[in-house]
Design brief:
- The structure is a homodimer.
- By secondary structure, chain A is an all-alpha fold.
- In chain A, about 85% of the residues lie in helices and about 0% in strands.
- The radius of gyration of chain A is 14 Å and the shape is elongated.
- The mean pLDDT of chain A is about 95.
- At the A-B interface, helix 1, helix 2 and helix 3 of A face helix 1, helix 2 and helix 3 of B.
Chain lengths: ~80, ~80
Amino acid sequence: MEFMTYIGLLAGILTTISFLPQAIKTWRTKSTKDISLAMFLCFCFGVVLWVIYGFYTQNLPVFLANFATFVLAFSILICKLKYG
Amino acid sequence: MEFMTYIGLLAGILTTISFLPQAIKTWRTKSTKDISLAMFLCFCFGVVLWVIYGFYTQNLPVFLANFATFVLAFSILICKLKYG
């Protein structure tokens, strides 16, 4: 595997796991007042397109990272819709 | 330009502009209690690596999208550090 693929995977791991502390905070506090609904609606839709892009261009870091990001970001979106 | 490059660019535009309503909300309300500091620290670092990855693999959507995402996400991080 090329060096830049490692950088891409590390980038993907970081931007993906970054949503985990936000998801945990949101689940725990059930407080989503400061979180933008427009952000998470738009972000989730964009991430779905990244997954499609990564799949069809056979770009492993883009595909894997965005698939996991979607799961986390979508769970935050659900909380935002639920708690307002 | 290939069709999948358009999908990638659209994905990049959506995941990038998604940070704009969050940044505007944060600038306006100066309230960042519900936003996770760990998320934005980790996310900004990851996005910098995506920029490097996009540059060296000559992947235009990944490079452009993450460059703009960094500017917005970093501004939210600054607000979080300032307002707590």
